[in-house]
């Protein structure tokens, strides 16, 4: 794996992992709608709007593998999610197939399964339970990966990312937090593991309070170096500043689940 394309390269998560990707790969092609200002040695910037198939073709040229962080990264209206995360994701997979790119790491999200209660421990075999249009688009991306692996032989790993950062931000993030170094370790498994076909893993560090059974990732050799419990005081102090959310506090997706909620809690 020599040249890796990173979409969403102007975003916050990309900013945290770029230095580690530069160490791991000969060349990192950065792509985003927004310009990446601080392009470093070993990096190259190619602007693209993922809604545009021709732009997707350009960014896939000469690439061995892709880390697809791009798209809209929070809840949005249908037009926005559809363009960036549904059509955009399809365009990228299809451009990758046409360019002969053999590997795709798809940044899925915990919001693909956000409507599981926090009392449940889930693996990646259970049905998705999107907590909004954003989560729905992530379930779509996982299914797209399955199609391109089974039908076209691409090797695909979808990472249901919890929350990336140097520290967990609150009590919910103690369960789902992932340190950037651990995220890069998972991305490298997706790009380099010789036996990968199509897997879904959870993007979480070694978290005592995890809601997720991440045995698929561990089976592929994942060995997270960071533990959310080491930051428990910070996270709980931040939690104490937040208001109680009668719906969001019940579910793994937090405030994404309470946003516009009109369901029946007794059935969930
Ligand atoms: C996500 O998928 C979002 O991209 C991020 O902004 C956070 O909201 C994160 O989930 C989270 O659930 O904390």
Overview of the molecule:
The chain is an alpha/beta fold and 268 residues long. It has a single domain (3-267), classed as 3-Layer(aba) Sandwich (Rossmann fold), CATH 3.40.50. 37% of the residues lie in helices and 16% in strands. It contains nine helices and nine strands. It has helices spanning 12-24, 53-60, 78-99, 133-152, 171-176, 180-192, 215-219, 232-239, 255-258; strands at residues 3-7, 27-32, 43-47, 65-68, 103-109, 155-161, 163-164, 177-178, 198-203. Strands 3-2-1-4-5-6-9 form a seven-stranded parallel sheet, sandwiched between helices. A two-stranded parallel sheet has the order 7-8. Strand 1, helix 1 and strand 2 form a beta-alpha-beta unit. Helix 1 (12-24) packs across helix 6 (180-192). The N and C termini lie far apart (44 Å). The mean pLDDT is 98. The site of D-galactaro-1,5-lactone has 6 residues, from loops.
